[in-house]
Amino acid sequence: MPFVRSFAVGAIDNRPFGITTDGKYLWWIGLQNRNIYQMDKSGNLIRTINVGAIDTVPRAITTDGKYLWWIGSSNLNIYQMDKSGNLIRTIDIGVIDNAPKGITTDGKYLWWTGSQKQNIYQMDKSGNLIRTIDIGAIDGLIIGITTDGKYLWFCGDTHNIIVQWAK
């Protein structure tokens, strides 16, 4: 697949970290300023949501179309926000895994990775743990995760791999 385009975002935040799309907009996390940024697909900044007062290490982000869901590594929580930046819910995940890395949603469930125990976790949107998938034998440091509705796809940093996993 050929390269299409890129956007320089260093002037906005020089530490872009997690990214997701709701189909219309890109939403990404900047670690330097502890913000969530909303951009159109032409690279124009639409909105900046400062989340540093909520968690000083915003790490990963996903959307179910209506809400933003993001992981904060300093407080070890998953946060649900509306697209205006209003906090809806906080889910404590530190008791499950103290090194959360990536998050995605299939619309019904949240799927997130934790490198402390080398697992993928499936939760409902109320924070109830549904299932734990041990992926330590595949890769010890799972960073990013996404889903296409049928499969989970995740990146492993230890073995530099991308894995397709049946949900």
Descriptive report:
This protein has 167 residues and is mainly β. The protein has one domain: TolB, C-terminal domain (Neuraminidase). The chain contains no helices and 15 strands. Strands 1-2-3-4 form a 4-stranded antiparallel sheet, with no helix packed on it. A 4-stranded antiparallel sheet has the order 5-6-7-8, with no helix packed on it. Strand 6 and strand 7 form a beta hairpin. The chain is globular and about 40 Å long.
Quick tags:
single chain; 167 residues; mainly beta; Neuraminidase; 4-stranded antiparallel β-sheet; 15 strands
CATH fold title: Neuraminidase
Question: What is the rounded Rg?
Answer: 15 Å
Termini Cα gap: 26 Å
Instruction: Name the CATH homologous superfamily.
Output: TolB, C-terminal domain
Taken from the alpha-carbon principal axes, the silhouette is globular
Q: Could you give a quick summary of the protein structure above?
A:
The protein has strands spanning 16-21, 25-30, 35-40, 45-50, 58-63, 67-72, 77-82, 87-92, 100-105, 109-114, 119-124, 129-134, 142-147, 151-156, 161-166. It has 167 residues and is mainly β. The chain has one domain (16-166): 6 Propeller (Neuraminidase), CATH 2.120.10.
Write the layout of secondary structure elements.
Elements: E1 16-21, E2 25-30, E3 35-40, E4 45-50, E5 58-63, E6 67-72, E7 77-82, E8 87-92, E9 100-105, E10 109-114, E11 119-124, E12 129-134, E13 142-147, E14 151-156, E15 161-166
Antiparallel strand pairs: 1-2, 2-3, 3-4, 5-6, 6-7, 7-8, 9-10, 10-11, 11-12, 13-14, 14-15
